[in-house]
Description:
Order of helices and strands: HHEEEEHHHHH
Low-confidence stretches: 3-18
Number of domains: 1
Structural class: mainly alpha
Oligomer: single chain
Number of helices: 7
Distance between the termini: 33 Å
Mean pLDDT: 88
Largest sheet: 2 strands, antiparallel
Strand order of the largest sheet: 1-2
Strand content: under 5%
Number of strands: 4
Shape: globular
Amino acid sequence: MKLAVAVVGAALLAAASNTGANREDEGWRAFTEVAAVLTHPRCLNCHVPGDSPLQGDEGRPHDMNVRRAADGRGTPAARCTNCHQTANSPAPHSPPGAPDWRLPPPSARMAWRGLTTEEICRSLKDPGRNGGRGLSQLVEHVSKDQIVNWGWDPGPGRGAPPLSHGEFVRRFVQWAESGAPCGLFQERR
């Protein structure tokens, strides 16, 4: 009888472990879809490792030698809001706009260009590299930040990310609620 109880107990533990592993794997799969958005030009043009944003669907260097500056809002002579107003300009390929147009400040170190999906995941989870945010604050950021939301209404002449904003947020929440894994369970052993 003790052997039967031990076998059943071991089976339950294994099932619980597999459920956790499956949940983490589903979370990781959700993050791979999130990463497809994060590496789209609407995000990647501003989440750059240097001080110069990129522009266009092809990620070319920004016109007029624009620089990030300490607050992420441009240099004194070339503030982002000099060209980027609170809404998109109506002409194709003219300056896009949203309230408080800016780059991430350099202190946030939220640069993803050139990173693998796993590296982006680890970077996103690291408060030292994500602007000091925990997972719930990241969910809030991707859900409500006006510049993030702009990515799905980029103005004429620009492509939108591969997921709708609602689906992006849903997949982001799924990743966060699964423990924010940065790889498949089998790969983490």
